[in-house]
Amino acid sequence: MMQAAFLSAYANTNSGYLYDDADGVGIFGFPAFSATGLVRHGFTARIGGVSTGPYTSLNMSFTRPGEPRENVMKNHRLFAKRAGIGWQSMVMDTFEHGVTVLEVDQSHCGMGYFRPSLPYCDGLVTKHAGVTLVTGHADCVPLYALDRKRRHIGLAHAGWKGTLGKIGCNMINMMRTRFGSDPTDLLAGVGPCICGDCFEVSEDLAARFMDAYPGVPLVSPGKPGKGYLDLAMASAAQFLESGIPPAQISLMHKCTYEDPTLLYSHRRDRGQTGGMSAFIQLLPPAKNAFMQLEAPLHQV
Ligand SMILES: [Zn+2]
Question: 291 alpha carbon to ligand 1 midpoint, in Å?
Answer without folding.
Answer: 35
